[in-house]
Amino acid sequence: LFASVELAPRDPILGLNEQYGADKRGNKVNLGVGVYYDDQGRIPLLEAVRRAEIKRVEAAAARGYLPIDGIAGYNKGAQTLLLGQDSPLVAEGRVLTAQALGGTGALKIGADFLKQLLPDSKVAISDPSWENHRALFERAGFEVVAYPYYDAATHGVNIEGMLAFLRQLPARTIVVLHACCHNPTGVDPSFEQWKQIAQVFQEKQLVPFMDIAYQGFGAGLEEDAAVVRLFAGLGLDMLISSSFSKSFSLYGERVGALTMISGDRDESTRVLSQLKRVIRTNYSNPPTHGGTVVSMVLNTPELYQLWTQELATMRDRIRAMRDQLVDKLKAHGVKQDFEFVRKQRGMFSYSGLSAAQVDRLREEHGVYAIASGRICVAALNSGNIDYVAEAIAKVL
Ligand code: PMP
Question: Which PANTHER family does the record associate with it (predicted)?
Answer without folding.
Answer: AROMATIC-AMINO-ACID AMINOTRANSFERASE, ASPARTATE AMINOTRANSFERASE
